[in-house]
Amino acid sequence: MSLSVDILQRFSMKIEWLFTGYTINPLKIFIIIVIVVVVGVLMYLYEPYWMVRKVRGPPIVPLLGHIHLMAKYGPDVFSILANKYGPIFRFHLGRQPMIIVADPELFKEVGIKKFKDIPNRSIPSPISASPLHQKGLFFTRGTRWSTMRNTVVSLYQPSHLASLVPTMQSFIESATQNLESSSSSSKGSDIVFSDLSLRMATDVIGQAAFGVNFGLSKPQSVDVDVDHDHNQKNMLYNDEVSDFIKQHIYSTTQLKMDLSGSLSIILGLLAPILQEPVRQILKRIPGTMDWKVDRTNRKLSTRLDEIVLNRIILQEKMQLGADDHDHDSKDLLSLILKTRPDSGSRNVVFTQDYISATVYEHLLAGSATTAFTLSSVVYLVSRHPNVENKLLAEIDGFCPHDDDQIPTSHDLQHKFPYLDQVIKEAMRFYFVSPLIARETANQVEIGGYLLPKGTWVWLAPGVVAKDATHFPEPDKFNPERFDPDCEEERHRHPYALIPFGIGPRACIGQKFSLQEIKLSLIHLYRKFVFRHSPNMECPLELEFGIVVNFKHGVKLRVINRI
Ligand code: HEM
């Protein structure tokens, strides 16, 4: 006690010394500047913490916040913290605090009841380093977002989705041909199912969003499907397809949420004020990761802008009657262009950069997530024979495996209840998007805490999905837990499983991807069953980026049923 009084006295004497007398002493000025800088830096670093300090959370390490806990506990970090601090707690990503919410009733409060006060997503550091990813639906805000969403949502109306079944089916069949040749030619050798499903999902969304056939599911060939006239106007050319996809994959996989991203992304976590200036410098220095990412993103943007521009020219020609071909395309790009007011109008929400970003975002949001879900189902079913038998019985009951009847959109929604359960359980078991970002637009009360405007509130549905309160024996793959007649299902909170998010900002592609996933699984299980490859690690290793992925892919053996 007397020691601290002594220290305080000495400190106040020093302060007095600094401010006594009117002579300009260089040493005094230097010390004052140092103090001001140190106080400024401390205020900059601690200000966000100060605003939400009342929310419980683990002690923070200066600069790192809780990033070291991510390294220590890996993907389970939020479950461990929720056990210790309850369903709402503070987690610091570097300087930035996030209020993590891990409770279904609070999901409802944040996502639905208080949507007016929490309508947007916060922009994490990897995205703020990537302008290409910022202008899609995901990160736009306010009225621009609602106008964009209202336009895009029409692509996902039931009648439109139903009309997409044949397109989806044709890509699924191409991918299945790949499997047939691999199962017969290589006599039980492995296939990397996750790659195959990614190629297929990319093709499906490429066609639905851009009206472009990337041709990735074609057996032994990545040739683009060429309809010559159309091709001239809106297609990627053969030799550019793989380049485009490579750039797309590079650009996406660099969006890391930990300290393994580019230097500017890391700075964005630790001291966001420095992120943009440093990015501007580093992107000009060849060889740095920022330089590579910038180059890739610029190439990607140029390619996307070309596609969009060609389509605008085509549309204008059609309006002038100079092109009389039937180009009644139903893809997202055509749809957005059709709803655009004249270029002279002042209310153009979908300027060319926003169109490119939104269409590209569909490729981004619709490929890896759908492919991950498909791979999870096949992987999990292949080591649960009871589930496999029940599933095969349901699919064969719809029509025998030598019949080619394609289910309609209505069939998919109503005639495969067990398949629905299997998909739900796989999505619970391997959660592709375990965190859902939101940001408060006004001061708002959540879970008993008053949160100021600008607070990052992140839902953690991945934590609830593995919580035994809602899902007894959470580490058991058990589709029966979703049987509408079972106790567990009847007593579960309706928002305990939200893999597609919640409220007005929930995933726009939910029905689209479920239609694709069901159609794929029905087609696959009519012809094949799958077994784990001995060359695959056990348990499966996951990789955590903007979405979760399989670290080494999903390798399976294919067995022909016919
Ligand atoms: C299994 C597949 C998918 C999963 C698990 C998934 C998951 C999600 C999640 C968790 C969100 C955030 C929701 C929220 O904040 O409440 C989201 C948003 C979004 N998803 Fe998906 N998604 C999938 C497929 C797709 C597909 C196929 C598309 C496009 C066709 C798509 C497009 C989008 C878009 C545009 C948003 C932003 C919506 C907005 O802010 O208005 N997703 N998705």
From TrEMBL:
Key words, A-Z: Heme, Iron, Membrane, Metal-binding, Monooxygenase, Oxidoreductase, Transmembrane, Transmembrane helix
Gene3D superfamilies xref list: Cytochrome P450
Protein origin, superkingdom: Eukaryota
Gene Ontology MF terms: heme binding; iron ion binding; monooxygenase activity; oxidoreductase activity, acting on paired donors, with incorporation or reduction of molecular oxygen
Coiled coil regions, renumbered to chain: none
InterPro entries according to UniProt: Cyt_P450, Cyt_P450_CS, Cyt_P450_E_grp-I, Cyt_P450_sf
TM stretches of this protein: 27-46
Binding annotation for heme: 507
PROSITE patterns (alphabetical): CYTOCHROME_P450
Cofactor(s) this protein requires: heme
PANTHER family in the cross-refs: THROMBOXANE-A SYNTHASE
Family: Belongs to the cytochrome P450 family.
Name the UniProt record assigns to this protein: Thromboxane-A synthase
